[in-house]
Amino acid sequence: MWTRSGLKYQAKENLRGKYWKAFVVSLLVSLLTSGTGSYGWGFNFGDHNVFSRGSSFRPWHGEPFSGNFSFNMPFETFFDSRVIILLMLFGIFAGLIALAYSIFIAPVIEVGGNRWYSRSRESQATPSIGQLFYMFRYGNFLTVVGSMFWKNLFLFLWGLLALIPTAVLAVLAIARVISLQFFRQNMTEDMMERFLSEALLLFAVWIIGSIAFSIPVIIKSYSYRMTPWILGDNARIGYKRALKLSMSMTSGHKFDMFLLDLSFIGWFLLGILACGIGVIFVVPYYAAVQAELFATLRHNAVEQKLTSMEEMGFIPVNQRGNTRENIVIPD
Predict the structure, then answer these.
(1) pTM summary value
(2) Which residue from 41, 149, 176, 314 has the highest number of Cβ atoms inside 10 Å of its Cβ?
(3) Containing domain of residue 158, as a range?
(4) What single string gives the DSSP state of each residue in 135-193?
(5) Can you tell me whether residue 324 is helix, strand or coil?
(6) Quick check: is 178 in a domain?
């Protein structure tokens, strides 16, 4: 049985002499797997940017260009059908690019980051940052993409449960508003008080319902938590086996894993108080603890005959009675 203090102590030991490289790895993973467009993208439509005042050019009106031009066209003229169509096409294109990146690139880098932390704790030498992109090589790319896609899809479908209270509340609110239309001319003070009481009651039910319906997806998120770590060990294991093995490994440990995450709230709050920048210094420590957790759960799974070190990407190098040493399959 593992303990939070034990995992954290071992993580600190494994980070000795490796922290700053782990920091770079975590920073790269964060930048490459977070929402695209978060850094360095912005447009300034002020008077001194694209168009300037005091010129004779009038776009969309056919006047000749005379050097500088202004942006003094009517609002409705600017947002004509051509501009709207172009904006819609651009939005669709950008959305497709972001979706493709979130499916084909970000999950592969996430698995590569987990692989780096696993290999870091399993050897004295510090792995190269190239481990982040290991899954793009050796025929692992499509298998990782497929496995992570199914894992995220299942979590998304479970997450739809949390929307049920919102949908029900929306239907009830619309029905109530429609019913009030018949009484708007004869609305009394008592009716208004009753309406406000109903609104507060519905809001409270919505809060409680949203929390209750969010519990299944939280549980499932912990059930699938080890999937990218398993893929980091052996990308060819397949999505069905990876998900099933993750659920087996986390069985009976999900609440302890939840408490482990809660124990980092103080660290992350401290990082947020440091202008938010401090959070990135906590992430390597958190990731190292997760690597220790995975190694512990993997050991338990092997002891319980749920898997083998060979299935997890290791090969036996020495056989002496009941003792077997394992090494990582070389890259």
Answers:
(1) 0.77
(2) 314
(3) 4-30+139-328
(4) GGSTT-HHHHHHHHHHHHHHHHHHHGGGGHHHHHHHHHHHHHHHHHHTTGGG--HHHHH
(5) strand
(6) yes
